[in-house]
What we know:
- The protein has helices spanning about 15-20, 40-45, 75, 90-95, 110-120, 135-145, 205-225, 245-255, 295; strands spanning about 30, 55, 60-65, 80, 100-105, 125-130, 150-155, 180-185, 225-235, 260, 270, 275, 280, 290, 300-310.
- It has two domains: about 5-15 and about 85-310, 3-Layer(aba) Sandwich (Rossmann fold); about 25-85, Alpha-Beta Plaits (2-Layer Sandwich).
- By secondary structure, it is an alpha/beta fold.
- Bound molecules: S-adenosylmethionine.
- Belongs to the class I-like SAM-binding methyltransferase superfamily. RsmB/NOP family.
Amino acid sequence: MTPLERYESLVDDFEAFRQACERPLPSVVRVNTIKATVDRATDALDAEGIAHEPTDWHPGVFRLPNDSPGRNWPHAHGWIHGQEEVSNLPARVLDPQPGERVWDTCAAPGSKTTQLAALMDDRGLLVGNDNNLGRLSALRHNAERLGVTNLVVTNQDARNFSLKPLGENAADDRGVDAFDRVLVDAPCSCEGTIRKNPDAFDTWSLDHVHSVAGVQKGILRRAIQATRPGGTVVYSTCTFAPEENEAVLDHVLDEEDCRLVDFETPLDGVPGVTEWQDEAYDPSVEKALRIYPHHNDTGGFFCAKLEVGA
Ligand SMILES: C[S@@+](CC[C@H](N)C(=O)[O-])C[C@H]1O[C@@H](n2cnc3c(N)ncnc32)[C@H](O)[C@@H]1O
């Protein structure tokens, strides 16, 4: 059985799903509103002769049918950034506001961090953390090109995240003065990236799924602990495995003071699954969103929104 066949009983239209997984992924960019307007970015693409098609859900996110996102002047200027369509979703669901304190737990190479900065109008405090120092250099490079100035970069294991030096008035004993909003775009088995990386399943194993699920639980628990009462945490992965999605949510609902909440989405998808193999999950995991590649001609994705207890 291939990893995809594991999901035959989960997916709404398995044949459409399988065929979509075999097609290459469309090339997509988002306009960086810190440096450009949609009109300025599209004028610049026109001037370069780069065809672009708006997505039907957001004027600042469009497809480049004939080009890759990275090799053109609008990109070099930081007016656009290559970012998969579904990858635009979690920052929008988190909905950070200018002036807030926001933590991106797993930030590198920074597509969502820089999108969070743009949604915050480059104001407030944005902490972009990743445990991989090498990947953080890509984050810094992207932040610089895109003109982000409200970003502090940290290099920690998010499961034990601490801001001790700032912690005199800290809300918890590890020095974190609570964040308003936290994004957990978690490390995962990346099954949903199969259209971009046809080799994505070469290293797939159930052991890896289970071990990365342990890391995801630890990161999401720390994210919830570091968020102020009433604050928001968004959990996302680019994988289909319920062990890394609904099972992680089920675990934190048991262990931490939080609840899943509904959210609006401009992209089609289906609710989270409440049962998988011999496991039954908290019924509220239905509030999460599963996006399969055939739903919107994108990669696969999972997204959930949590409110931290008051
Ligand atoms: C899905 S990628 C993040 C992509 C990023 N959010 C973006 O949009 O560009 C997951 C990231 O988690 C990082 N990571 C893995 N384990 C971690 C941990 N324990 N603490 C913090 N970051 C971790 C990896 O280095 C990787 O960069």
